[in-house]
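User: Here's a chain of 199 residues. Predict its fold as tokens.
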Amino acid sequence: MWGGICRRGGAGPPRRPPAAPPPTPSSPEAPGTGQEVPGPGVPKVENPIDTTRFASEPCSTLTDSQVNDVFGRPVTPKPDLKAPAGPTCGWDPADGSGASVNVIFATVDSLGLTGVYRARGTNYKLFEPLEPIEGYPAVIYGTSDYRSEGVCSLAVGTSDRSTVDLTVTQSRTKIGQIDPCQAAQTVASKVMTSLKRGK
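Assistant: Prediction complete.
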């Protein structure tokens, strides 16, 4: 469908962020208020998803067919259940394009999208709420704005206390041809379809 839009590493600019920057925990707040979710202005997740099974098998979030749609070819997934930000799966074609997709079941806190919203303007210089993805609230975020370099991260609320995060990076040949955050939303839609099906 749009194989090769993603990118990781390669001969990119030296300031390029990691393919899966860990979500930043929110700042502590006064007792009795810090754990209230959703926080002010944060959309509520009306139909929570139990992502326990997927967090234990993060690479099951994209089927082989979906991976083919994304990259235009089969790609072997690489799980990391002990990644700093939470259980992660990465798809990184060994074709020299630098394309990649990373899916993270964030465990840095139990605040869901509230933790992301609290970091806007401080830890997250890039912060843009999105229209719901498959019916679930979502937001683009980043410690800096790397979209011009083909990198986009977003978080989708799977419950008021949990998110699934994605980082999509474009192949060098696709940078500037399509907004990487559009690509990230396309991947997120596929992931959320899997999560909603529960298999």
